[in-house]
Amino acid sequence: MPLRRPLRRPLRRPLRRPLLVAAVLGLLATLPAIPAGAAEEYPFRDPALPLAARIDDLAGRLTLPEKISLLHQFQPAIPRLGIGLFKTGTEALHGVAWSTDVDNGGALVTAKGTVFPQAVGLASTWNPELVKKVGAAVGDEARGYNAQNPRVWGLNLWAPVVNLLRDPRWGRNEEGYSEDPALTGAISVAYASGLRGDDPRYLKTAPTLKHYLANNNEIHRDTTSSSLRPRVEEEYDQAAFKPAIAANAATGVMASYNLVNGRPATVNPDLNERVRSWTDQDLLNVTDAWAPNNLVNSQKYYATLPEADAAALKAGIDSYTVDDTNGGPTNQAITDALAQGLIKEADVDTAVRHILSIRFRLGEFDPDGGPYGKIGKEVIDSAAHRALNRRAAAEAMVLLKNSRGALPLPASPGKVAVIGPLSQTVYTDWYSGDLPYQVTALDGVKERLDARGTVTGTEGVDRIALKDIATGRYVTAGTGTGGAVLRTAAATAGPAEQFDVFDWGQGVLTLRSAANGRYVGYNWSNFVNDQVRPNGWFAQQQFKLEAQADGTYLLRYAGYETAFDWFGPNHYIKAGPDGTLTLTTADQAARFAKEAVSSGVQAAVAAAKAADVAVVVVGSSPAINGREDHDRTDMNLAEGQRALVEAVLKANPRTVMVLQNSYPTTIDWAQDKVPAILWTTHAGAETGHALADTLFGDADPAGRLTQTWYRAGHRLPDILDYDIIKTGTTYLYAKDRPLYAFGHGLSYTTFGYQGLRLDAGTVRPDGTVRATVKVTNTGKVAGDEVVQLYTHQRSSRVDQPVKQLRAFQRVHLAAGETRQVTLSFPAADLKLWDVTRRAWAVEKAEHDVMVGGASDRVRARTTLKVAGEKIPDRDLFATTRAADFDDYRGVELVDETKVAGDAVGGTSTGDWISFERAALGGGATGFTASVAAAAPGRIEVRLGSPTGRRLGDVAVPATGGVYSYTTVTAPLARAGGVQDVYLVFTGDVRVKDFALTR
Fold first, then answer.
1. 288 is catalytic
2. CATH number for region 394-459+600-700
3. Residue 568 — very low, low, confident or very high, per pLDDT cuts 50/70/90?
């Protein structure tokens, strides 16, 4: 049973890119200009002064309304002090995103920058040094954009995303790094370090980690509660966020939409109490878009916005991302909160100091803009960044399978057929910038072979025409880049009546007009063939063709139906009186004949038969499959794409499958049949070059998987169940054999391991574990190996991971070269969160130390003794927090109060929590607990199991509300010794804490 319950609807980020830009500039045009003489030499402008003194000086010059105005995302200019506008929140996940500007004439223009591989691809390099270089390039380009238009592109960057990839169905899988906290920590430190720059005082940009905390589902994402038992929170979710903050690589966190243990993350007290304890630097914490209003609206956690904004401020939020560019509602809410005594001016001052600290460190108030102030737009899409992009895309590729010498391809392979729906395009995602150019897979192979081979290409998609049975007229599109409104018009099927059908799985398809190569989309009033590719908050280019018993088809519009029922029953398409396609109900929908113009599979088979080698590129559309606000419900490759691969393989046994997507996919059938499988994420403009580099052996595919790829038929738990320990998920706790293990990835060469040894066989908790191993390239070509070190604790008070990554290093070895690789980690990393004392503990135990090329390819092992402690038996006679249980069934963790604390709640009859190895001594004779309940309930105290010996019952009265606690007591039958104690619930009861009495 999950520790949580699904609640209501998902949240939609409200503004699309052009609308966002127009709204920003509309507001900014109304702001007063800064007078030329306003920037007089105030002390805060003196870079020779200490930072704290500069902040004090500027903060002391601000009026209360001015200070309040700085709390909104769009901090207005303060002309009297010569201070310009400052904006938090430029997206920079794998390049500067949403790169749309408005020229002097008011027209939308696109500033096209470097789009690096998606985040999960960057992590797949297992190369922090490279990832830091990518971050540095993105930071430079952010400065370049900011120099172009600081009113659109700020220097507070919302990246990286460090939410753990706990569940491969998460729609935003592409944005994260790994299911492992150590790998996520290392990559996030690297990327954020590149963004912030290496200057000890100044920031190139100010990276903000997303999304704090436990944000790994899109379904009902603003109302579901991520129920985190203490060990999962401390050892797993928190562990991913701490490294980049502790390393001073990141300058704050964004609070997530979801609730954590019943409390909205926007008011999570950890923002102050936990996150800020990880560093001595000021942090700037922000809300996610519109999240402050959720506290009052969808979450209904507070009755009024002043209450909500006050609670967020006191919890540790410094900047409110809400109401687009309009700071008025936030300013009023904070002003009202002050008047109502909900907050003090000192609370505002604290947040303002955090904000100003970051702005000073960005060099904004220095006369010369600081050391990064002269970076200009010339860095955007520079030649150096293009080369770095190509390298990153190549290093990210993972060779999943390679049999019979399928790869690398020979320098002169003969005829090559490049086939597949992703072979002639490069897709971008919601957090991508616009591509300045693109090199497709077909482009890359053609360029690589030049005159040495004949390269052919086909997308392998069907071309069809749709004829309205009632009128005999064909659906007709427009020519030219703008296309036209679709209508049934022509009596015959010429190019304007033909559409290429791309299959994205589960019946979802896109229609690309043969007349102009543009996709058909819905613009809220008509269907038009004017889209370059599927795009948008929800791709409005999605359709389904639903077969009917009489052989005809209904055409269903599927663009928005996965998230909001915008159209009620009107999801189907009919032709109006003038033939224009409109939405209607299924019973009123037009019936279409689907006429085949050409078969994609037949074209692919013909190309494969005529070739010496077939390269089939299949995968996902980032706008259609898993994406923000839409979790995946199916992990299979699209049915039509699988059929394409199988047909090509049958036609040509020398087939290479390139899988391009952003998440694990169940491809057992391909692993069984296809000679070679190469995985890449959506990797940016240089995708085709990097792919060709890898296919032909110029680059060794040494990327490694950062999460487990499960086998077909594997039953994943509910996506809302965050307890990886209880559910046995991720490589840490899963015991079954996956399709591809965490860390998996092959190479064009082979590696041997010898002589694993530790500096010492025993280590203290404050020591360091150092392991050395000789790694030899035993093959005939140079290559990269990712040397991975895992540990397993053999004995423990608690369930320990099957194995856990502790250190890794990517090394390049020439053929025959041997290198001694040293991997080290603090012994403190072996700690666990001891719920009996609410503290970290390193246990006395033996650990297996394992080294190899993947979590399932251990090549050498040894034993480490840790001179830790034995966790004492529980003392339940002391007050024990109910949330610190050892095991449970059915319960969820809830908010003790709206301010702080966790309790056990969400109980129903038969649910239980247990407390193992309780030292009862001579005997417990009584029980007392702090409880709350809306209706009467009961708690049974039992020994050994939920149905074991019953020591006593305690009646729980209705207390007047879930936050109204009262103390209840009951006698117990005497019990002594060391026992496992169970609390078994009847009814919906909340328990804050309890104690046994003698």
1. yes
2. 3.40.50.1700
3. confident
